[in-house]
Amino acid sequence: KNSKRIFRPTVELRLLHSLTLEFIPGQCVALMGPSGAGKSTLLMALAGHNHHTGVIRGRILVNGQTMPQNFKEMSSYVPQDDILMPGLSPREMLGFTAALKVSATPEERYQTVTEVIDKLGLTECESVRIGNVDDKGISGGQRKRVSIGMELVRDPSLMFIDEGTSGLDSKSAEDVVSIFRRL
């Protein structure tokens, strides 16, 4: 009764300082740096996911204006860890995501999912179970493309993809980078 849980940071850690960036529409930008440098923190802040990133001092501008309240709806963030349901196929996973995030008729959502599957080169595995470490399903590269597709079904104006090629073999990484360039 009347209990409280208070968390206080033990050390103030400044990850990013005096940072100015400009992104041009249609441009593909890669952030590089050592582990712990703040790349994920920066991406989450840019994508409007500030509740995980601590205190942001300064301004984030979008088209020269303070970040609008609906920015998270205009942009998308693909986390570094795939958040997939192993018992579903890529088509089912993308369809489930579209049903949650896209205001459209079921037919329109199905068409959107089909277009994303084609765009990401997932046609050959669209009906294969995703699986997991213990129960092999689709490949790591295909998993990453499904994760990207989960955000593409929303047709965002801007995508932030964290560790888009980590853990992939060189061929899969090359395929994913090629997809980034075409988006």
TrEMBL record:
It comes from the Eukaryota. Transmembrane segments: none annotated. PROSITE patterns: ABC_TRANSPORTER_1, ABC_TRANSPORTER_2. It is a multi-pass membrane protein. Residues 1-183 form the ABC transporter domain. It is found in: Membrane. GO terms for cellular component: membrane. Keywords: ATP-binding, Membrane, Nucleotide-binding, Transmembrane, Transmembrane helix, Transport. Pfam families: ABC_tran. GO terms for molecular function: ATP binding; ATP hydrolysis activity; ATPase-coupled transmembrane transporter activity. This is ABC transporter domain-containing protein.
